[in-house]
Structure formats: C-alpha cells, structure tokens
Amino acid sequence: MTSDNRKLRLDFARRLIEALIFAGLDDRPTTLARHFNTNSYGMVITMHGARRWLIGDSFPTQSHLNALASLLGVSSAWLLLGQGPMLEEAVSVDAVPASNNNLGEVLGIFQSLKDSERQLVLNLMMTLNRSHSHST
C-alpha cells in the first residue's frame, strides 16, 4: 500500500466524518451502518464495512458512494476526493431558507474556513452532540 493511497483513504474518512456531523449524525460505525441500511433502499453495509470507511481502511464502491453522498446531502466528488463544493448544487448555501435560523450563513462561514479550523469546529460539534444525546 502506497502512502499516497493511504492518505487518500484517510482524507476520505475525514470528509465522511464531516458529512455525518453535517447531517446531524455521530461518527460511530453502528450509526453509519444503521442510517445507510435504513435509508438506502436495498443497498446494505455491515458495521465492519462502515468502520473501515470511517478509519480510512477502504473506500466504498461507486454505487455505495453515490448513495452515501445522497443520504448525507453532500457531493460525491467532494466526499470521495475533496473536489468541488461540499454541498450539491441543489442543496447549496443559497438554497437554504432564511427561516432556518441563519443556517445558510453558518454553512457559508463553515465552508470558508481552513481545514484545521473546520476540524476544530467539527470536534466541538461532536462533543456537544455527544453530551446532548447523553443528557436526553
């Protein structure tokens, strides 16, 4: 395994975690597998397969990638390779209604951050999400 290939898989895993958080989910393999299997209409993944994606051991097949991106509301090109915008055109920041408590503005700001700053925000959101889910 080349170091370039390993880096590509780790970068994919980082973006997958970012997309999960964006979709309001946690980054656990059980959550990913359950969400995928419940909503992908016939396609299934195992918890082990979800874990391998999340830790950068493997990539999904093209059909799984497309379904995953659609379920999480992100671009498949962005999810796999980091190319283009995170959000599909149909779900662009401009398309988010203003009634969503400035969600469009928040997403715009988030997309403008550097990778290290995004990671900091994602870590904070994961921590807050975990503490919130344990308290409810």
Order of helices and strands: HHHHHHH
Biggest sheet character: none
How confident overall, as mean pLDDT? 82
User: Helix segment count?
Assistant: 7
Q: State the distance separating the first and last CA atoms.
A: 44 Å
Q: pLDDT under 50 segments (min length 5)?
A: 95-99
- The global form is globular
Portion in helices: 55-70%
Query: For the CA atoms, what is the radius of gyration?
Result: 15 Å
The total strand number stands at: 0
Structural class given helices, strands, pairing?
Answer: mainly alpha
Total count of domains: 1
* Beta fraction: under 5%
Structure description:
The protein has 136 residues and is mainly alpha-helical. The chain has one domain (3-135). Helices cover 64% and strands 0% of the residues. The chain has 7 helices and no strands. The protein has helices at 3-22, 29-39, 47-54, 62-72, 76-81, 103-112, 115-135. Helix 2 packs across helix 3. The longest helix has 21 residues, at 115-135.
